[in-house]
Amino acid sequence: MKVDFTRWLPAIAKDSYRKTALSVVGVAALGGLALAPTAAAAPVTTGPHQGAVAAIDLATGKTAGKTAGKTAGKAAGKTAAPARHEDQPIESGLTTGSATGKPPAGKPSRDELIPHGVEGAQSRVPLDDAQLANARAIVDAAKKTGVGDRGAVVGVATSLQESKLYNLGHLGAYNDHDSQGLFQQRPSSGWGTPDQVTDPEYAATAFFTALKNVDGWQNLPLTAAAQTVQVSAFPYAYAQWEEQAADIVQQIW
After folding, report:
1. Cys-Cys crosslink for 57: which of 21, 62, 107, 154, Cβ 3.0 to 4.6 Å?
2. pLDDT tens sequence across 152-204
3. What is the pLDDT, as a whole number, of residue 249?
4. pTM above 0.70, yes or no
5. In angstroms, rounded to a whole number, what is the distance separating the alpha carbons of residues 148 and 140?
């Protein structure tokens, strides 16, 4: 699909530590993966598609979009962190147990994180510091609400689908109704105020509170558990993020 990124207006990406102005040149592609029907029909199996790569580069000040990316960063008082390549560890010094088949000491096993196996082709996106901070907030909320490491995988996968782990503010004319935040929760549907649903801790806690009310969610496939909470127009799209979500949770836990 050809996308004219010049049509997009600036938007606000929020997190619990700061408000960061993020060029919707980046958000357009990242959010488009979450909202477009192609997210479920043609998942990315080796990384973001070409349009998303270009948008990420622009948003983070790399390659030809360097000036545009720096301008967006300066508006918030800092330059956005460069995106990592998907093959790199999500954080320096952290490794998984995939090479030996055993998890690192004190980390949940693959069987605990993905007890039912993955469904369909899996997608991955590179993660920057803002996304990692938001993933940590989700994992922390999973621990506090008692949904455990499996619940954390459901939460991280859901946020990967909904916002690519970016804490998105209102996108104006391009918003999906009034959806905002890591989980694209709608204030008009009772999830909370705009300030609440764009607070990572609140948003994650609200998601996990709703998940705990899903009877037998632990025994459901990830996409079914997530969809019961989110009521998405693309109910099977969550499944494609289960593997990356498990990797993130195993490393952060």
Report:
1. 62
2. 999 999 999 999 999 999 887 777 789 999 999 999 999 999 999 999 999 99
3. 98
4. no
5. 10
Res. 144: pLDDT tops 50: yes
Polymer length in residues for the chain? 253
Own/partner contacts of 42-48, CB < 8 Å, gap of 24 or more, are 43/120, 43/121, 43/122, 43/123, 43/237, 43/240, 44/123, 44/124, 44/125, 45/121, 45/122, 45/123, 45/124, 46/86, 46/124, 47/86, 47/124, 47/125, 47/126, 48/125, 48/126
Instruction: Answer for the pair 193, 187: CB distance below 8 angstroms, yes or no.
Output: yes
For 19, the 3-state DSSP assignment is: strand
132, 91 contact by CB (below 8 A): yes
Q: How far apart are alpha carbons 37 and 42 in whole angstroms?
A: 9
Whole-number Å distance between alpha carbons of 234 and 124: 18
pLDDT of 60 above 70: no
* Main-chain dihedrals φ then ψ at residue 20, nearest 5 degrees: -115, 125
C-alpha separations of 218 from 19, 122, 142, 154 in Å: 35, 21, 13, 10
* pLDDT above 80 (res 246): yes
Per-residue pLDDT, averaged over 90-114, amounts to 68
The DSSP line for 112-169 is HHSTT---S--------HHHHHHHHHHHHHHHHHT-HHHHHHHHHHHHHHHHTT--B-
* Cα distance between residue 113 and residue 96, in whole Å: 13
